[in-house]
Amino acid sequence: MERIGVEERRTRLGRRHRLGAGCQAADPVEAAASMVALHASDPATVHLSVAARVPGSDVADTERALYDDRSLIRMLGMRRTVFVVPTPFAPIVQAACTNDIAVKQRKLLVKHLLEAEVAEDADACGQWLAAVEEATATALALRGSATAQELSADEPRLRTRLSMAPGKSYGAQPYVTSRVLFQLAADGRIVRGRPLGTWLSGQHQWSPAADWLPAGLGDKLAAEEARVTLARAWLASFGPGTTADLQWWAGWTLGQTRKALAAVEAVKVDLDGQVGFVLPGDEAPEVPVEPWVAFLPGLDPTPMGWKERDWFLGPHKAKLFDTTGNIGPSIWSDGRIIGAWGQPESGEVRYQLLEDVGADTTAMVEAEAARWTKWLAGVRVTPRFRSPLEKQLSQG
Q1: pTM of this prediction?
Q2: Mean pLDDT of all residues in 24-35
Q3: CA distance 230 to 225
Q4: Alpha-carbon gap, residue 49 to 27, rounded angstroms
Q5: Which DSSP letter does residue 144 get?
Q6: Which of 47, 70, 256, 303 sits most deeply, having the most CB atoms within 10 A of its CB?
Q7: Secondary structure tally for the chain: helices H, strands E
Q8: CA angle 304-90-67, nearest 5°?
């Protein structure tokens, strides 16, 4: 097997993830395509991930691609996580990942409806849910776009309450509204549109999926074929990677992962004692890149692209990740993490380096911190998932 060492992997990361000097993307769509998908569980991440890869871009550029040009789409995808993907690629993600998630979530929702005694048995609960979904989709189509509150006014059954953890101190009786909209989105029938409020808001208007894709996200693609296409895209952006990396990233079973790698005819390579994979013909060294520094937001797709992260993370996991495995804001130099950043209430970008990187790299970090302070222009971004070091830097 061809050996691909850590330095080569870091070079590939800098070039293929559009972070290295002279390697950056031309626009938000190209930035998203270079990463296969941008994490969007935290709405700020999308804008910051684009700004880290597209020189001169701003929030308006990304919003234009999402809501005016509709060349990007926000959707449920890998690991039941919300992503932003180039719109033509959305049916691939839907067939490769989201459809399976939709089946599991429907079963869970029917179970919760039964526990709330919405109907007398599971079949009746399923029929009730289908009727509410159809009425909600019709109301949305008539409006063109709508908030959850508006749709609840059109379809009163959306205000049916569930009974979660009855008898427990943490029990709750939420409306079924968000669960029904989540299910319609998972089925590829509706999509999240403009946010309610600023670009930091996690609440969105909803629109019919056909407004972004005239044919809808649909079910025309075979799941196996779509998984092969998604595996190929992941290898192009993140390869080399291990079977465990791809399985974790995609949220597939081990069997699905192995089958997709075999269909791609992925080539085995030696990752310093581990077996990794690259696309056929991608074994040769990447073209070197000039020294670079990047400030990436929490949940940026680069650090979340692999399960096994020691080759770029080093000993810094405890300070940079929360207890559930979500990374906070990080600072990168030449393909590895060297520190973290955060914002106090005053809004400027503060940083802390976790190792001695030398005067030249430190100067680049200082310049990048100043650039981000200017870019954010006083807007304070508090990550949804907070790391210990980000919390420390945000104090005061």
Answers
A1: 0.95
A2: 98
A3: 9
A4: 12
A5: S
A6: 47
A7: 16, 12
A8: 95
